[in-house]
Protein: DNA polymerase III subunit beta
Organism: Streptomyces flavochromogenes
Amino acid sequence: MEFRIDSGVLTDAVAWAARVLPARSPMPVLGGLLLEAADGRLRVSGLDHEASARIEVEADTGVGGRALVLGRRLLDICKVLPRGLTELAVEGARLSVTSGDARFGLSLLPLDDYPAPPALPAVRGLVDGDAFAAAVGQVAVAAGRDDSLPVLTGIRLALDGAVMTLAATDRYRYAVRTLEWKPEADGGEPADVVVPARRLTEIARSLAGTGPARLALDSGSIGFERDGLRTITRLLDGRLPRHDKLFALGDHALAAADRAPLTEAVKRVAVVAEGDSPVQLTFTPTSIHLQAGYEDDVASQRLPATLTGQDTLTVAFNPGYLLDALTALDTPEVHFHLLGPGQRALLTDGPQPTHRHLLMSVKPLV
């Protein structure tokens, strides 16, 4: 195998495929990246027990062939290559990498021991890369981090007609986002699966700015594919708790405020909130008063706001959770659907929301 390629293109391709490589594995070959050169294309592939990634880029392929090398070592080399044309070639039991006056040699891993990559599931339709990346980012903040409860570390992805629903919860908050997608002509069957949040976030970021991507799905895995790029991830077992009843608040007060100034105000007053100390929000028909801290270490700020359904209402939230919710919303105004102190509160992006974020309010400051 022998080919030439721009060092920047090579670095980007290797970095993208290397995302799925395991940090540790009892199978050394799973730390490898498979390089395949043929017909003016270079394919770089990586996999572990949960995910696989493959990317194709243009290259000057003098001699076709395949080589398996340690992926993270190759990535380290790519990051320090001089800018310009790079030549890679198999020389006996190693891969040589030459760029300008710099030359590296990498030991080859045994190709016979490398597992076959998983097949792409059945394609279900198209999703816009930018819209999908934004939506995943908005719900991922609520995904759990506790590996002892694996399903809560995932993002629910549900398909129903032309509507996709993404949702995540760590039991203390619950984020839900809906967006449109384009199912196959026959409409396809509804689906409801849970995808590892970390994997889905990485995939979504890689799809941003690329236009539509094909979404593929079966009972055990989900895949995304666009020109030159393919990634497949295993699904998590189990289901997230349903959010329908949690989000049905019944009779409640409604408050609204400009999101950006409120976000900055929460950051400002939260500097005196130590540990689990909350940020308190007192709503009136014309303003919102923020307060944090105890005794001598206190902070407060008042902003314009509206409140309907009550004359005044005080709630308090974990400042980190509140900031995550406000930052994830992407509209000028945020709406608060409020039951009262110590009860559920729903933050939305407008009267007809596509993004909803449920928080549990805590005991207000004394």
